[in-house]
Amino acid sequence: MSTRPAHASKELGDFTTSPRLIPISVIAIAIGVLSAYVALALLRMIGIFTNLFFYQRWSTELVSPAGNHLGPWEVLVPVAGALVIGLMARYGSERIRGHGIPEAIESILLKGSRVEPRVALLKPISSAISIGSGGPFGAEGPIIMTGGAFGSIVAQLFRLTGAERKTLLVAGAAAGMSATFAAPVAAALLAVELLLFEWKPRSLVPVALASATAAIVRPHLLGSGPLFPVPPHDAAMSGPAIGACVACGLLAGGLSALLTLSVYAFEDLFAKLPIHWMWWPAIGGVVVGVGGLVYPRALGVGYDLIQDLLRGNLAVPALLLLIVTKWTMWSASLGSGTSGGVLAPLLIMGAALGGLESHWFPDEGIGFWPLVSMGAVLGGTMRSPFTGVIFTLELTHDLNALLPLLLAVTCAHAFTVLVLRRSILTEKVSRRGFHLSREYSTDPLEILFVREVMGSEIAAIPASLNRDQSSPRSAASVAGIASWPWSTRPARCWGWSRDGTWRSGRYSRRRRRRTRSQRSHGRRSRRFPTSRSASWSTAWPKRGARCCRW
Question: Rounded to a whole number, what is the largest CA-CA distance in the chain?
């Protein structure tokens, strides 16, 4: 280890931040309040469209589409909603397509964290129409994109830097997720694992404050308590139960990989159709409508379905039918490019897989294996293990499930990392021509001083040497080098060339003559660019020469 001077400890620190952190944090807190109201508005719009499409009434109450009395006409409801979304995407903004998180990642990486204001308006409306017309999606992806859009708009109003715009965009996204699920810690972790691409106080502090603010405001808007409460389970686990947790994680990892592959298989299939992409969501809506006839409870967000799964209220045939139907509907509709989130469907399919496992795994209490499995599927599919663990704990408030969740989520994450190159969230970004790396490490250039890597032995030719003494061999013996280029002024270079001959030259810029037609148009021909040439001589240069590139 090198010895560093005492003043280095005064100039450098563990983290790089500045007093700008304080005003950015204040703005992030305001964005947290705003995102909580945006989440409330989105949930109310989902209730309005669900009641309009399936029950022909005006109400903001969140209800399940499964209780409708439309009969076979129910198939047309998702198709109608998908047609509206296709029109909005084509004539409004194409960025409302998809489930939100990849679009937020793309805005951060490729667009300087700038989001158009119309996206903040069209994204929640299109998502509410999609979910309200029976789309098998959740509200978390759209609220992440919508909250991030509002955060980006606020940052653009204040004309902040690119890093500060990114921080406020992610702060809005995390606050929206926190307000929707009452999961502030998981929202902050998701921001770090998926959106920030760094672990620095300049971004973590504002994002965490925005997420906490939204969680504080949420009880006054949406109520308090966990979203899916479960009875507490025993913290002590036997050997067979630990092995079953590992098996649960591997099965969840396999399901996560298949879900990811199926979504993009449908996307590739739609891309081969000889029609405009505006009509693709309508075709996906047909699949959703038919799936709703097969298993009506697979329609919509399905929060009530998650609660029933955690209580163990579904039999094995119903669980199998739910997994197959939800999987097909979700993959086809999401691959068609409609608008909706992925977290709630992953929780449903993961909990259904855990319900099947509970018939063969050791008995650890009602809802134990659905709880562990839905966290493992979430962490494996999104490649965010800590988010999967903490998110499940905040949804259920069962702290005794921490250890089994850690085991299962880690195994699922390891399985998908070994089997798939990218997650369901980053594959879309990669298909648009951008490589995304999610491995965080310390940049060695940030911890090294220049003096530790630069050469300290500098060789120079004395100015007292004459031309006869400046042969290649004598110069090498004096300076310790084979050749050394020098310059008397910026436009003149001289020195020993690679073949051992002395050369001295002056650079001059020569401009080609333009034709009369080119001069009349006032432009330079691309065929005759400005050229740079050198004329060589053997003149001895003056003293005070400076080094230049040969």
Answer: 105
Where the chain has pLDDT below 70, the residues are 1-13, 435-449, 451-452, 455-550
Residue reference for tokens 């399936």: 54
The reply to whether the predicted model has a pTM over 0.85 is: no
pLDDT, tens only, 458-493: 656 666 655 555 554 455 455 444 444 444 444 455
Domain ranges of the chain: 21-431, 473-511+538-550
**Bridge partners of 505?**
493, 536
Which residue bears the tokens 């493992």?
A: 376
The pLDDT of residue 312: 87
Question: What does CATH list as the number for 21-431?
Answer: 1.10.3080.10
State how far the Cα of 163 lies from the Cα of 165, in Å rounded to an integer. 5
DSSP 25-87: HHHHHHHHHHHHHHHHHHHHHHHHHHHHHHH-S-------GGG---GGGGGHHHHHHHHHHHH
Strand partners, 509: 532
Task: Give 451-501 as a 3 state SS string.
Answer: HHHCCCCCCCCCCCCCCCCCCHHHHHHHHCCCCCCEEEECCEEEEECCCCC
Query: In the Cβ-directed half-sphere of 209, how many Cα atoms lie within 13 Å?
Result: 19
